[in-house]
């Protein structure tokens, strides 16, 4: 197994603690100012939260050059709308993301349903620049804005029986036309993680990208980001999080278990049954640019390999 050395964050990118606190207070003040607003999303409206000037999180690696935003916004996988990556931008615009609530339940002490604004009151928003690797062998680099999923789950107080975390996406067939079609996937879209994966500090819930709110086609208003796993694990439009004793069935795993494993950790040595996972096409790198070598755990082995110390990485996927 290849363990990469930690990528360094240039000192110019490390925010000094006074600036950090000041920014955090600023965001809190702004959030307080919109408390009571009747629509969620108001938190991110103009002059409310300065998403572009958040503190860089511990996991923001400036050595990665972000993929041009127009590509990330217009080449999306959103099966509730369409199977066509270029069409979801237009089709997603009628999707209603306002107001938005998140239900947290299952094996927790504090189950409840919360407005997105109230959740953001309690979380520190930060920018994290992550590599994103799709199971279809393309990749991109995205500066996400969001917060640590683990911090949210801690507030719900997981019971010792909680071993898995299930995520459910919005079911809104009036505006998500492909949800009327049950021939391929079951709706709503469901994903899941083991509890230690969900609590890992790299795992985040994103509400924005490129210093702005998430575009609808990229999963507004709330999506999961797990940078060492294939992109299909990063469920968009999350409405429910349940802590469970047993692993639930997940959308892609149920559809084709031999192709989309539950773990879906990025691994160049385990091919997809229909193509190699050894390399990837970098979005934005141009048609003739050579492909990039795929890294074990998408380059995050140093942080996450210990989660899988008892598994043979040549076989599990
Ligand atoms: N979440 C939902 N709800 N519906 C989807 O179709 N597609 C997944 C994932 N999350 C998907 C989803 C897949 S296959 C990928 S590769 C990523 O979202 C794509 O994220 P992006 O479109 O923002 O690049």
Describe this structure in words.
Strands 3, 4, 7, 8, 9, 11 and 12 form a 7-stranded mixed sheet that branches. The protein has a 5-stranded mixed sheet with strand order 2-1-10-5-6. It has helices at residues 17-34, 69-74, 88-91, 116-122, 149-156, 195-199, 251-255, 301-304; strands at 101-106, 112-115, 126-133, 138-148, 164-169, 190-194, 204-209, 212-213, 223-225, 238-244, 279-282, 292-293. It is an alpha+beta fold and 317 residues long. It has a single domain, classed as Sulfite Oxidase, Chain A, domain 2 (Alpha-Beta Complex), CATH 3.90.420.10. It contains 8 helices and 12 strands. The model is unreliable at 1-40 (pLDDT under 50). Residues 76-80, 134, 169, 189, 218-219, 231-232, 234-237 line the site of ligand MTE.
